[in-house]
């Protein structure tokens, strides 16, 4: 399938930044800047406490709101956690699952990522599944193996019909929040490894239709080179998604 036929998605990951008031202000500014930019889907994944303010501020615009995590159980004694139903009933359409910071600091494993992916898809959320190698794995020459393993475990038991609600973000861990961006060639290659893992699971047609983002120090200056690569269908953006003008410039690069 031609890259142009895949849905381009530019998504922000605010992490633990922005109060509800700051969220409203940023989105009010952004919605004006991205008016009429129909060349890509625009998503902001925000802290749970910001969701009501973000949904309100984005209403009637092209900006969709996402969450940064979701629990795999429907309800129960899981203090501090948020269920998929809580998200959908609050107007959330997307959720990030398996971000490397969750894996690194909060005990997320490939198996819990798989459970979260299935719970979120079953609840009707669109999932942005993050996979990526750490620097030691890249230096060992096992990037392809790591990406394929993470992708295959995360998708274990996910039926092909649900792939239309799945996006995978290739995020080399060494490039996240470090200012050390992957070269466009490295991003294209990593995204290609992810796509071939999906092909091994679901076949060529499904793999070619899948949106695969690159994430890791993408900004308004490097976005067009990264997004120009054949396997790069969008971006997951941390730092540069906090400033409306910078994020809007990345949306422009995706048009
Ligand atoms: C991220 O958190 O997913 C990310 C890519 O962050 P940054 O753009 O700041 O590297």
Keywords:
TIM Barrel, 255 residues, binds phosphoenolpyruvate, alpha/beta
SSE layout:
Blueprint: E1 9-13, H1 20-33, E2 41-46, H2 51-58, E3 63-67, H3 84-88, E4 94-97, H4 100-105, H5 110-122, E5 126-131, H6 135-140, H7 143-154, E6 166-170, H8 184-202, H9 204-209, E7 211-215, H10 223-227, E8 234-237, H11 244-253
Parallel strand pairs: 1-2, 1-8, 2-3, 3-4, 4-5, 5-6, 6-7, 7-8
Helix pairs in contact: 1-2, 1-11, 7-8
Descriptive report:
The chain has a single domain, classed as TIM Barrel. The protein is built from eleven helices and eight strands. It has helices spanning 20-33, 51-58, 84-88, 100-105, 110-122, 135-140, 143-154, 184-202, 204-209, 223-227, 244-253; strands at 9-13, 41-46, 63-67, 94-97, 126-131, 166-170, 211-215, 234-237. The radius of gyration is 17 Å and the shape is globular. The mean pLDDT is 97. The structure holds phosphoenolpyruvate. Phosphoenolpyruvate binds at residues 13, 171, 176-177, 215-218, 236-239.
**Secondary-structure element sequence?**
EHEHEHEHHEHHEHHEHEH
Shape: globular
Oligomer: single chain
> What small molecules does the structure contain?
phosphoenolpyruvate
Mean pLDDT: 97
- Unreliable residue stretches: none
| Major β-sheet strand ordering | 1-2-3-4-5-6-7-8
C-alpha-based Rg, rounded: 17 Å
Structural class: alpha/beta
Largest sheet: 8 strands, parallel, barrel
């Amino acid at each position: 399938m031609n890259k142009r036929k895949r849905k381009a998605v530019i998504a922000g990951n605010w992490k633990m930044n922005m109060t509800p008031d700051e969220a409203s202000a940023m989105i009010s500014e952004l919605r004006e800047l991205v008016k009429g930019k129909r060349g890509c889907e625009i998503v902001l994944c925000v802290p749970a406490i910001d969701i009501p303010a973000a949904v309100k501020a984005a209403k009637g615009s092209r900006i969709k709101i996402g969450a940064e995590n979701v629990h795999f159980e429907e309800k129960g004694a899981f203090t501090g956690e948020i269920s998929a139903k809580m998200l959908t009933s609050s107007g959330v359409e997307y959720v990030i699952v398996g971000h490397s910071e969750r894996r690194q600091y909060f005990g997320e494993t490939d198996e819990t990522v798989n459970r979260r992916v299935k719970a979120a898809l079953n609840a009707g959320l669109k999932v942005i599944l993050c996979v990526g190698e750490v620097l030691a794995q890249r230096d060992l020459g096992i990037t392809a193996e790591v990406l394929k393993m993470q992708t295959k475990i995360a998708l274990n038991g996910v039926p092909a019909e649900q792939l239309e609600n799945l996006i995978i973000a290739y995020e080399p861990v060494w490039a996240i929040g470090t200012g050390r961006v992957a070269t466009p060639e490295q991003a294209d290659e990593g995204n290609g490894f992810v796509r071939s893992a999906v092909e091994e699971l679901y076949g060529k047609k499904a793999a070619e239709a899948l949106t695969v983002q690159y994430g890791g120090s993408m900004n308004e200056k490097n976005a067009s080179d990264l997004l120009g690569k054949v396997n790069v269908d969008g971006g997951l953006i941390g730092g540069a998604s906090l400033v409306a003008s910078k994020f809007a410039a990345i949306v422009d690069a995706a048009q």
